[in-house]
Amino acid sequence: MSTEKSNLKTFLKDNLNFSSHEGKALAKLILSISDASIEISQNTRRAGLTNILGSANSINVQGEDVQKLDLIANEILLKFLKNDSGCGGYASEELEKPEFFNNEDSSFFVVADPLDGSSNIDVNMPIGTIFGIIRKTVPEKSGFIRSGRYYIASGYILYGPSTLLVIAFNNNVNEFTLDPLENKFYLSDENINVPISGETYSINEGNFDSWSSPIKKWAESRKNSFNELKKSSSLRYVGSLVADAHRTLKKGGIFVYPADKKNPNGKLRLMYEANPYALIFESANGSSSNGEVSILDIEPENFHQRTPLILGSKINVQSFLSVKTTNKKNIIKQKRIFPWNELSISKMRSESKKTILEFSKELNVEQSTVRKWESGIIKPNKKNREKLDDYLLKNFPKLINNPFEN
Asked: What is the DSSP letter of 48?
């Protein structure tokens, strides 16, 4: 591997604030997840030789058949996270309830789908691991049940011809490729941005008869030259969220898994599938939606909550929503909303040389609200995030690409 490429450890050291406990803990946690993924990758590559393919003859909390590799991947993640002092708990598709760790100094919770696309395992199709890292604000179960705005980082590992790690933090998305000779991840694509539009669409047309009329109308429009691209689109669908979303992230277009008659609330899980991908796509200048609002703005009611999921290029998602709903909000002109936290808010106030009183008056909020933001007790709501965005864009345009930088 060329020494010109940063390995993951070096990249994290260069791009996270190692002068803070949180920065170091986040880097260490990302490395723990990457180490777990290497072990999972090794298992998937030898699956046909070690009798770990096929059903485990059990049903998970979702009512779905569990594959042997599902359980193995879950146990591997659990092992690595339990031994990471920065992780206070872990919740996944395979666990009915979150598992808490006795790590007193922990700063984060991790949510994951340990092995997405398990129905593709026995035919050697792409599969992957999806994860989200949530800042730990309370130690109880409610600390997991947070909107996507509380996710400080998210990512996925794609086990394909190469093993890829794609991760979003600090409003940037970067891709790393595993060198199997060294068992290290090296930077292979940085500052990924979703193309503004794309020619491919990804949806399971086998569910056509179960869709609502607007969804059917949209799908039919992809096949003619009367759509927003002025030409017919190409259908690409693997049936693995990791594979379909990765192609959409890199090449543009749209991924759609709508609600239907069988799954009126959607099929994909909000906490450990939709939220991680929404953070990735929005950090990469793409869009996410459940058909009404950004995925990141959904307040979950339970850990295994399901949702419709739309991801992709801004123009493609805009077109879908104009057919799907009567909401004509122009996503393309939307300002990007940063994942504001106590560090970035404190930094911006410090840079502006404002007291809490002065800062609160400029934002038209209570002093106590600013204090709670900066202490991490509460997160800004959508309206206040937009105020913070406006303030940043007006006064500190150099911080736009990375509001967490030193």
From this structure: G
